[in-house]
Amino acid sequence: MTASTPLTSTAGVRIPAAPRLRAELRRRNEGQSLLHYLAVSLSASVLVLLLAIAVAVIGLPTLVGGSAMTVLTQSMEPGLPPGTLVVIRPTPVEDIRVGDVVTYQIRSGESAVVSHRVTAKTYTDGELTFVTKGDNNDAVDPEPVREVQIRGTLWYSLPLLGWVNSILNGANRTVVLAIVAGGLFLYAAVSVAGAVRDRRRATASASAADA
């Protein structure tokens, strides 16, 4: 039977080698566990942030039949500066009130739109129309807005996320979402594999220390 070789500490106390080694391994494992916890927490925070952005930019607008758009001009400053994400939802014209922000086609039937605030409701040739104005503009828009031009009213807005929405528009949306999802799954797989590997190493080291 072979006895463990004793070690002498700086305090002059003789400590057996195996307990000393186990204590050292325990300290190392605690440090690795803290780093692993911080890495997992950071990953979870990033994942939650990405999911929240996806819900704000894609999920909620799709749910109500609306759409997300990016403010590109300064006409609605300071409330809606360039880069702001604005999410609009369909609204019956009779429910649109003075003070609402409406998104409408600059010319009926064309894709270009603008989001301005309603300053008055009028009737033009018996049709309900709206006088609109950008908050940062000196004068109202030159032509009244007709019902056929209106895409919806402002539901909510998020600063800076408009640039994210611009990146995710069109064909880019599918590609970017696929890359993000693939990257998250890959990172999760690597993190799990690393945790399993570290646990096995710690177990093997503890077993060697007890031998």
From TrEMBL:
- Gene Ontology MF term list: signal peptidase activity
Q: Which SUPFAM superfamilies match?
A: LexA/Signal peptidase
Could you tell me the keywords of this UniProt record?
Hydrolase, Membrane, Transmembrane, Transmembrane helix
InterPro entries from the UniProt entry: LexA/Signal_pep-like_sf (IPR036286), Peptidase_S26 (IPR019533), Peptidase_S26B (IPR001733)
Cell compartment(s), UniProt: Membrane
Membrane-spanning intervals of the chain: 34-60, 175-196
Enzyme Commission no: 3.4.21.89
Q: Which NCBIfam families match?
A: sigpep_I_arch
This protein is called: Signal peptidase I
